[in-house]
Amino acid sequence: MKKNIFNEDVYLQRDIDSLDTFYERHFYHKQMRYEQGILYNDEINEYNNFLHILKELMESLGFNTSLENIIAISYLIKNGYLSYEKSFDIKSPTDDLEIKYGMSIICGMGCCRNFSSFGNDILNLLGYYSKIFYCYTPTFILSRFSYSEEANHVINLIEHDGVKYGIDMYNGDTLYGFKNKLILSSISSYYFKSIRYKPYYEIVTGESTFDDIDFQLEIFNNESKKNKISSFVYEDEIRAHTLEVMSRHIDLFEDFHSKTKDIKKDLALSLKRKNEKKNL
Predict the structure, then answer these.
(1) Of 107, 137, 123, which is closest to residue 74 (Cα–Cα)?
(2) How is residue 65 annotated by DSSP?
(3) Closest C-alpha to 32, from 267, 213, 206
(4) Would the pTM count as exceeding 0.90?
(5) What 3-state DSSP class applies to 101?
(6) Three-state SS across the chain?
(7) CA–CA separation, 258 vs 235, rounded Å?
(8) Along the 280 residues of the chain, how does pLDDT read in single tens digits?
């Protein structure tokens, strides 16, 4: 039977074919990010400035947990308050930047990588633990045959009351808990799904070494043994309360959008001009 280099049972054993593939991709992506860092340096600085302005808004809302804050961020994204035209399309951008996927949110569009990158940027700025979490999510049921698939999705890994959870802003803020070191299952009364962690992608991006991944997997194995919040606590208490608070601050968000419209517009249009010039 032919081995599959994307199966964790293969590449976590330091399989040579897997290593060759992942490191080849790593150097390609490293070069791409280096070039983007030079070409889009001004836009990256403006994006970071915007995040600091957003940080002040987030702090004014009075949320005390990463879970509440990331639900709030998801709300702001989907309702257009973080985009320059105050509209948002959930779709995959054609010209987003790997070095700062979150910038596409300002342009008014994004898919899972843009949501998770933006959420990670602002949570880290707020001082909360957040990790980009690459995974495979099946169309229907996660089976043993899907273990050899490449990563096709990305969410955020956060902490709440000393327990790590995955949260998928892109798909309705679905919360996941560790079932074992590689599998997470949804914590929901209406959405039943499991996803599989795909740590090889952290080798590709340069975020982790194999030793880092081995250490993380030990941590995630311990996480799987911890008690998680119930779907009722998450959906009917934490998320419901957070969204209720957000609904009471519409005027504040309208004012925020108005005050930041110029910086968002300048950033979005500058990205558009450079992308068009680059693609000529």
Answers:
(1) 123
(2) S
(3) 206
(4) yes
(5) coil
(6) CCCCCCCHHHHCCCCHHHHHHHHHHHHHHHHHHHHHHHHCHHHHHHHHHHHHHHHHHHHHCCCCCHHHHHHHHHHHHHCCCCCCCCCCEECCCCCCCHHHCCHHHHHCEECHHHHHHHHHHHHHHHCCCEEEEEEECCCCCCCHHHHHCCCCEEEEEEEECCEEEEEEHHHCCEEEEECCCCEEEECCCCCCCEEEECCHHHHHHCCCCHHHHHHHHHHHHHHCCCCCCCHHHHHHHHHHHHHHHHHCCHHHHHHHHHHHHHHHHHHHHHHHHHHHHHCC
(7) 31
(8) 467 899 999 999 999 999 999 999 999 999 999 999 999 999 999 999 999 999 999 999 999 999 999 999 999 999 999 999 999 999 999 889 999 999 999 999 999 999 999 999 999 999 999 999 999 998 777 776 678 899 999 999 999 999 999 999 999 999 999 999 999 999 999 888 999 999 999 999 999 999 999 999 999 999 999 999 999 999 999 999 999 999 999 999 999 999 999 999 999 999 989 888 877 6
